[in-house]
Design brief:
homodimer, two-stranded antiparallel ribbon, DNA-binding
Chain lengths: 134, 134
DNA sequence: CTAAGTGTACTAACGCATTTAATACACATC
DNA sequence: GATGTGTATTAAATGCGTTAGTACACTTAG
């Protein structure tokens, strides 16, 4: 079940886009998997169908999903979807890092922050469980 | 001169707060330095005085600056200002990294992104000061 | 064919944050 | 006293996000 923060400054449709992208990267949504219908998803999330549609529109524009009138919306089979979603995440990280650099923070301070999130073990393992898919 | 993006999703007063914090961390604004008056700053930036005041209010609430009625607004002499601003930047980086981690990105991928911003030289120099002028 | 479910499009209205505008007041400085 | 400060208040306008309701074309199951 997807949890939304209706109080967040981030619009609902942006949160939804992020969540779907996250599920794709986690492998819980695979190419050609069908997404919930606009109306069902909206009912399930307690929001308006138009809001779901807006998220789907953006995702289709970014070629993360594709939609067929009368059938439904599906995860894009495009091989580069994962690559694209990865790149999106990387870009967000880079933006924050650039801002920090502009504020004179040192590389080591940033690296420390990354270690704070991922743990400080010296191994170069990513630490997650889907590593074997390489 | 401070440049604002009036089209950004980030409110003007938030941009202004960021810019001032940035100038403090760059050492261009030092403790007890006087900031432009609300009215002058607004005229200079081409925005409404209320917007500047809102930024100043937030900065004073966060103890980044202090204001004296009849005199002006000044950078707080609090020794921890720099530390606090650093922490803000670090938190933004961590948020982006946590989001990326939730999407299954590996630690190495994040580290690579950091290197993309800071450069890949193996030295542990922080890169601040006049380093970039070489 | 019919019915139900799908994506899509459109208009209208509302809420809310942001921003602007215009005053007003108290204080400090000269 | 004049000027320049910060501060407070009210009002209006604007834009974005969201909801609501309706409508149409399409696909599928029966």
């Amino acid at each position: 079940m997807i949890r939304l923060d209706l109080q967040s400054r981030l619009p609902i449709y942006e949160q939804l886009k992020n969540k779907i992208g996250e599920l794709v990267l986690l492998g819980e949504l695979k190419p050609d998997d069908q997404l919930p219908s606009v109306r069902n998803f909206a009912r399930e999330l307690g929001i308006n169908p138009n809001t779901v549609q807006k998220a789907y529109q953006d995702l289709e524009r970014d070629k993360i999903i594709y939609s067929v009138a009368g059938r439904g919306s599906y995860i894009s089979p495009d091989i580069d979807v994962t690559k694209q979603l990865h790149e999106q995440q990387i870009q967000k990280v880079k933006s924050a890092v650039m801002q920090a650099k502009a504020c004179n923070l040192s590389k080591d301070q940033i690296i420390d922050a990354v270690y704070d999130v991922y743990g400080r073990d010296t191994s170069h393992d990513s630490g997650n469980g889907t590593y074997e898919k390489i």
